[in-house]
Design brief:
Blueprint lengths: L3 E3 L6 H13 L17 H11 L12 E7 L5 E8 L12 E5 L8 H15 L4 E7 L3 H9 L3 E8 L2 E9 L1
Antiparallel strand pairs: 1-2, 2-3, 3-4, 5-7, 6-7
Length: about 170
């Protein structure tokens, strides 16, 4: 399995729309780590938003500097999406520095573990010393992904009526 993290660009438009549609066709209306790609009307609008949010001077006032990446294979097919939030605000203190999703047809192949491993290198390169990740308590695959990448249980919390955990990964 060889994947790499790349910044979304115009050239990924059709593949990105197909990626998003696969989630919707699978009955999943939320794509974690997508910086609201699941809720944005157009790909161009989403690209502008993630570009703005990646810069301290243009980040939305209610958000934090965030880098968003597609995880792509050798053929540039989008396998997943992952984001890195450089800081945490009050809203994100429970949600953490990172969210990610693997497209439904590519799950249970180790891609999430590799995506997170690659993102840890990006975080380290950005001078971060630790990442906090949250996961719903019944999401065993994601818990395993976090633990395989060095995640250590920190605490539990409630979010929208569901029990969730926070893990810390030291860089």
């Amino acid at each position: 399995m060889e994947i790499k993290l790349v910044k979304p660009t115009k050239r990924f438009k059709e593949r990105a729309l197909g990626f998003r549609q696969e989630f919707f066709d699978n009955g999943e209306m939320i794509i974690n780590g997508s910086e609201l790609f699941d809720k944005t009307d157009t790909y161009e609008e989403w690209l502008k938003s993630i570009k703005n949010n990646a810069n301290v001077e243009t980040v939305s006032p209610d958000w934090v500097v965030t880098d968003t990446f597609f995880a792509v294979d050798q053929a540039d097919e989008i396998i997943g999406i992952i984001d890195l939030r450089h800081t945490l605000n009050d809203f994100l203190k429970d949600l953490g520095n990172c969210g990610y999703s693997v497209r439904p047809s590519e799950r249970r192949k180790g891609y999430a573990t590799e995506m997170l491993r690659l993102l840890l290198k990006v975080a380290d390169g950005a001078g971060m010393t630790e990442l906090f990740l949250s996961v719903e308590k019944d999401n065993e695959p994601s818990i395993k992904t976090i633990i395989k990448n060095g995640g250590v249980f920190e605490r539990s919390f409630e979010f929208e009526g569901k029990s969730a955990y926070v893990y810390k990964i030291a860089l």
